Amino acid sequence: MSLATEQASPAATRPAKPKTKRGPEHRPGLNRWLPYALLAPAVLLELFIHIIPMIVGIWMSFVKLTKFFIANWSSAPGAGLGNYKVALDFDNAVGQGLLKSFGVTVAFSLITVAFSWVLGMAAAVALQPEFRGRGLVRTLFLVPYALPAYAGILTWNFMLQRDTGAVNHVLEQLHLSDGNTFWLIGGNALVSLITVAGWKLWTFAFLTLMAGMQSIPRDLYEAASVDGAGNIRQWRNITLPSLRPVNLVLVLVLFLWTFSDFNTPYVLFGTAQPPAGDLITFHIYNASFLTWNFGTGAAMSVLLLIFLMIVTGAYLLVTGRRSRRA
Amino acid sequence: MRLRSLVAAVAATALGISLAACGGGDSDGASGGGSGGDQTLTYWASNQGTSLDNDKEVLTPVLEKFTKDTGIKVNLEVIGWNDLQTRIQTAITSGQAPDVVNIGNTWAASLQATDAFLPFDGDAMNAIGGKDKFVPTALATGGKEGTDPTSVPLYGLAYGLYYNKAMFAAAGLQPPKTWEEMVAAAKKLTVPAKNQWGMALAAGSYTENVHFAFINAAQNKADWFNGEGKPTFTGDGNVQGVLRYLDLMQKDKVANPSNAQYDNGTKSVNDFATKKVAMVINQNNADSSIVANGMKAGEYGVVPFPAPAGGEPVASHVAGINLSIFKNTKNKDAALKFVNYMTSAQTQTTLGKPFASLPVLKDAKPVFTTDEAEAATFQDVYNTKSKPLPLVPAEDQFESTVGKAMNAMFAKIATGGTVTADDVKAALKTAEDQVAASS
Predict the structure, then answer these.
(1) If you placed Cys at A272, which of A75, A112, B246, B263 could pair as Cys (CB 3.0 to 4.6 Å)?
(2) What is residue B134's DSSP assignment?
(3) What is the pLDDT of residues A43-67, one digit of tens each?
(4) CA of A82 to nearest chain B CA: how many angstroms apart?
(5) Which ipTM value was assigned to this complex?
(6) What's the CA angle centered on B239, arms B214 and A67, to 5 degrees?
(7) Phi/psi of residue B24, each to 5°?
(8) How many Å lie between the alpha carbon of B177 and the closest alpha carbon of chain A?
């Protein structure tokens, strides 16, 4: 209501505006409220979509929310740090499972981010010079990004089947294997997971890096070229340093996305996820929904959140310091 | 003024969106209706037929008849098996639940523990026709022993060993009566050069795997939980039972290693129906898939899944679908009428054929097949050779932990590894610890 009263005054002072030509500062009420009013919808949505669920999640991690209480979950008894103790007790099956899954996820994230970045960078560099059909190739590269994740991953699932999948068929035709390799169970599951996640992700890296490269002045390259610098030298001494701010954000975003990826393992493996592809988000899903222990699942989620916050903070601190020094 | 209305509009929209987000599901979870003549029940049915649409086609006329008889409308939603458990959990948590729901009967004790379902006490049981109308073993799956059940049987199912008659005749074999005979026959019918295998296993499906962990252990007279509901997974009988089943792929080599990727029973049944394998162990609702895939009735026979010589003659768990009423329903009487109708002799006969189910009512005859020998075999297994899965609250955890451990062991075997009795014991110990830690 106060919003409405505050706004009455600027309406009244409006006739003065053409004389002064000094804009909004002459309308103190509006000036004060407009930014908040424009932010309000976003803040409200943020509150309902992220903040409140997060608070509920943190609360859940401190109560014994098992099947015995989910029907009336506000009455679940407190668990203190019990859920955290179970999740972090590495002598016990639950803790061991979480630790293993954490290890798998770290390996998965690092390799996937590296793989996506290298591929994206290579493609962005290759598509810098103008040539006939460049637009078409760029469009084609964006297909994985445009495709609904579910459809793309499901197609991979078909292709990676042992007996009927295209991957084994092609490898057999090329005499690279006997065509009997398992891709979705056993140790290869991680390779498959990285391939599929990388396939989904590298085009984002490509798009971001390509956009970043557009802003590098051409004359830098021309000058370097006159001085006799080759392509690799130009890339190392001009492209890479110029893309530094882009890369800082890109690598962080890719890491956060891969570390909390749920779609890829869920659609690729279904409910029968192999131990080698047991990513932490899927592990938490199982802990919550298959064993009906939402308290422990929530504790694991909070631990994941803390870990990602620490990694992000440390990353920004280290890279920020280096930027300032440079 | 323009600005004020703009701000108001934006604020109202934002509020509207967030309110809609909070209240979402109100409409589809409606247990409303409530008053007077136009009562409406919401019913979540599990997928029983060849597809979700097929289920709708089969159920719609049955539900219309109920509406005609009672004036109560039924709002039907058919839910696939992969989603059903999560949907039920969400319904329990949010309170936005249907009135009546199908559940897998093995979940009965776990769901009962949530206290979200209506107990069929004396009055409720009388309202649906009394407990004497049901086959006692089927009714026993309705909840924990010694309590009022929170679910009643709807469709009965049991495992049987399907065999290809022509393949058996060509190899001069008789249908097996013991485990040893089954393995010997499977070995004889395994011709990897022709890509023909003795058996197909849904070795990547944790739900199928855990059923065989249970049945094979039961044949060894072993239990998975003690009297207090505590897990006893690592007993010798359990370890040996699990190993015996794994050995079909590992030691006996009568199943294609690719089966380790079969994450549901349909794939192994399809291999049988298309004559790639000589035998498959499946529940009697496999009949519709087998026929749909081109095998004719009469080309296959069914015998009970055999126990090893000297073992307990357990050939199946008491499988099937139960019916539950959510406790917070506003239409309790209508829901009880509906359960009574669905478990009436007439409805059971109507649905028994399309859903290939065994009758859960005393003295009823199976109608899912015209093959009398097959019908008699399944009925015999269901009534006399089956044992209910552990009726304890942690049953669902037993299914997920032991089933997934078996998936991983099959994967190890398929990719060239070896699984010993010690490995099985270690895997079951991990599963046991997981259950203990989360109960």
Answers:
(1) B263
(2) B
(3) 999 999 999 999 999 999 999 998 8
(4) 11
(5) 0.81
(6) 50
(7) -55, 140
(8) 32
